[in-house]
Amino acid sequence: MPEQGGSPAQLAWSRFLARRSSRYGLGMLALIVLTGIYAPFLSNEVALVWWDQDGLRFPLIWDLFNRRSYEKIYDVYFNVLALLLPVLAVVFATLGRRIGVTGRIKIGVASLALVGTFCLLPVFPGHGGRVAVWDHRPFTASGIQEWSALPEAKRPFAVFTPVKHRFDATYPGAILQSPGTMNPVTGGHYWLGTDAGGHDVLTHLFFGARISLTVGLVAAGLSFLIGLVVGAVSGYFGGWVDLVLQRIVEIMMCFPTFILILTVVAMLGRDIFLIMTVIGITSWAGTARLVRGEFLAHAVRDYVTAVEALGLPRWRIMFRHILPNAIAPLLISLTFGIAGSVGAESALAFVGLGDPTAPSWGVLLEQGRENIRYPWLIYTPGLAIFAIVMTLNLLGNNLREAIDPKQRQ
Amino acid sequence: MTAYIIRRLLLMIPTFIGILIINFAVLRLQGPTLVDQMQAGVGKGGGEGGPGERKAQGAAKDVENYIDRFRRSGLDLPALINLRGFTGRDEVVARLRDSAGDGPNRERPSTRNGIEKDLWLGGPQLVEPLLAVVADDGLATLHAPAALALSYCAYVTVTARDLARMPAQRLNQIQERNERLRNDRIRYTNTAQGFATVDPEATAKRADLLALFAVPGTHAEFTAARATRWSDSLVRTGFCDFMAKLFTAQLYSESRKDYVFSVIADRWYVTFWLNTISIVIAWAGSVLLGIRSARRSGSLEDRVTTSALFLAWSMPSMFFGTLLLYYFCTDTSGSKAWFPNRGLSSDDALWLPTGQYLLDLLWHAFLPLVVLSYNSFTALSRYMRANLLEQLDADYVRSARAKGCGDDAVVYRHAVGNSLITMITLAGGLLADLFSGALIVELIFSIPGLGWLMLDAAIQQDGPLLMGSTVITVSLLLVGILISDLLYAVVDPRIRGRYA
């Protein structure tokens, strides 16, 4: 591939994209992310469009902001994102040329942060906004009998999501049904069967993507931050600070992390956010070691001596001057870190210590192990975890080869 | 070489201590919940005749059970600094007044209850000040609550090990004293107006209590628990107590009703052997496959192997293991189960002749070994291939080729040896993952090993058992890392040279 001029980052990015497998990987990742974001549009009991003599309504959109339907904070976040994404897409499509890549990234990050802050505010109503959707049966698929009894002219026109099940609903008689069985309550089919708790597996699959993505981002981000600070301080200052920090890193490296996570979760409770935090604060040792190596190498370079001679404060040298030069290998470790965190959360759920209120893929796989005769409970979550871990590993691998061309054969 | 080993061993000490401290801190995080549980539990059992009345006999057994649990799990002492040994009579009086509602702090009724129960958990260090309160004629209103707290603080927990080892005379003495303390509890109520004694035999009970402590030796026994030096407040802590119990194998598991290490003794070798065998299999297999792949680098076979290994590396072992369980250990979909789905031996295996017994063991352990080796194997063979390719590019290999070495000789005599050095370090680093993986494998195939025990302990919230099994796991791990370091020194002439 002919390499045109450009910054090292641009060159690495074009080398990365030149491989077909990275394009497939990015596509797969986009698919998983979009599945997570648009999970309520893929599987819901509430109608997407509802048109009767009273007028046209969009009950699903209203239901997105109903804290009674979506209790968890990450659900709210993804719901807001689902509506924000098309807006951003339109903005970028019309103004794309003028904003440029950096501008787009800045706008994207700013809006994600804005959404995050917005979701933390308790502005969401406890019941269905202006239309009480969930309590008002007729807007949902389970109200089907009610309105099929109406005369032809009064029957509403309704559009439903592809899968007509709610992620937190248990349906009567739906325990361990095989794939393709019909749900008499909503008129939908269990395309991938149901689990031991009477939930639809396909719906569980869609909504599990949200948890895996949240866990991956929060846990890996946390461990990345801790590792960054510890490694930077250790590598830049050296001396006894380095010695002490390296002992701590060594302890964390030696500790079977999963056992520590297990102990903490067993002792403190099984909240999904606690699990994320614990995974984050126990898995930073590798990153710290990597960052330390980079900082050790950079601390003796001429440009660092130059900024030191200018008398800049140390934190500024560390994080404004050295860090941008050392960031590339860290991105690789972040990618693998996300894969590792997703794996750790699933494993925790698999051994029976996951959050029982969060429909993660590991919980489903645990049910597959307990009810070993039902293969759809093994394959669905197993392949999903496999897909996300493999995609991230693939991207990390290709990223490494693109950033460090020495490794290419 | 000896210097190298000693250096390695010394470096392990801070690691081991660090792990102990982290684990203890995590376990103590749960401490307050247990105390809350006790307070809720006792509150329920204690209120028979009106609000706040202590039903001395009924709730007593309950409280003693809780005290036993706290002492056995090492939660009865403050974690890091223990100032109870310095608590004097005046402080106890102030706390009792607080809990009666007319103390200096004017506590809310809900907190008042807690203060009183904190005194109950005070242990032998509070016996002397409490006794001083009971003996003081001027504090008549506080006699009843102080006597109750005294009876709990002076209560001695008798463990199963004590029953077996303690001289019978001493055991009798302790049990008689516990019994007398139980009988001497004065019934009282804690109302808004303060403590009111409702027990008609209060005077007799108080006299008996004082007589009990007047017995020569009894008082001295509890005075010994008091603090005389400032260092006592650092030594008589939950941490030191827990560590002492850990190292003298006195940790007690509440969920198993047995000592932690005797539970582990039955199980640790299962995990140990499974892990050892699987790391050997994974290591040998990945070296062979790595050599084969690297020598045919770029060929179709190499590309297929590399891609397959990449996919396998991303495959979580819980998925792989569950699939194996479904296809080979379950009699579904028309096929019969080829392998057993639980345990490491059949029920009647002990009566089998040795040959058949070993076959039975292999039959049971085959799939677990496959899953256990699988993850390390995929990781290691990727490294082996990359490393060998790097070595084959090196100058010394070119020199060897230039002097006319055959291809086999170049690879096996020159390059592979250098790759093995890295592989040994990697194998040591993978051990931690292996132990975590063993947890999942043991769960899937119901193997009664350390991992399964640990999961059970986690689900039952059994802190001491978790601590014990973590310590054993980490020790095995450190031994493994030490062995890999030693092998490293054996293989790498540079290390031998440096420490010669």
Write a compact overview of the structure shown.
The complex is a heterodimer of chains A (409) and B (500). Chain A is mainly alpha-helical and 409 residues long.
Provide a descriptive summary of the structure in words.
The complex is a heterodimer of chains A (409) and B (500). Chain A has a 3-stranded antiparallel sheet with strand order 2-1-3, with no helix packed on it. In chain A, strands 4-5 form a two-stranded antiparallel ribbon. With 409 residues, chain A is mainly α. In chain A, α9 runs antiparallel to α10. Chain A is built from 15 helices and 5 strands. Chain A has 2 domains: 19-166, no CATH class; 201-408, MetI-like fold (Orthogonal Bundle). Mean pLDDT of chain A is 84; it is low at 127-135. Chain A has helices at residues 8-18, 20-37, 39-42, 59-63, 73-120, 144-148, 201-237, 239-254, 257-268, 272-282, 285-299, 302-309, 314-350, 361-370, 376-403, and strands at residues 49-52, 55-57, 157-159, 181-182, 189-190. In chain B, α18 crosses α20. The longest helix of chain B has 39 residues, at 354-392. Chain B is mostly helical and 500 residues long. Chains A and B meet through α8, α9, α13, α14 and α15 of A and α1, α16, α17, α20 and α21 of B.
Secondary-structure blueprint of this entry?
The complex is a heterodimer of chains A (409) and B (500).
Chain A (H helix, E strand, L loop, with lengths): L7 H11 L1 H18 L1 H4 L6 E4 L2 E3 L1 H5 L9 H48 L23 H5 L8 E3 L21 E2 L6 E2 L10 H37 L1 H16 L2 H12 L3 H11 L2 H15 L2 H8 L4 H37 L10 H10 L5 H28 L6
Antiparallel strand pairs in A: 1-2, 1-3, 4-5
Helix pairs in contact in A: 1-15, 2-7, 2-15, 7-8, 7-10, 7-11, 7-13, 7-15, 8-11, 9-10, 11-13, 13-14, 13-15, 14-15
Chain B lengths: L1 H28 L1 H16 L9 H18 L15 H12 L8 H12 L6 H9 L7 H11 L6 H6 L2 H16 L4 E4 L2 E4 L4 H13 L3 H6 L8 H4 L2 H10 L4 E2 L4 E2 H6 L2 H28 L4 H15 L2 H12 L25 H39 L2 H8 L4 H38 L5 H10 L3 H29 L1 H6 L2
Antiparallel strand pairs in B: 1-2, 3-4
Helix pairs in contact in B: 1-22, 2-3, 4-5, 4-6, 5-7, 6-7, 9-10, 15-18, 15-20, 16-18, 17-18, 17-20, 18-20, 19-20, 20-21, 20-22, 21-22
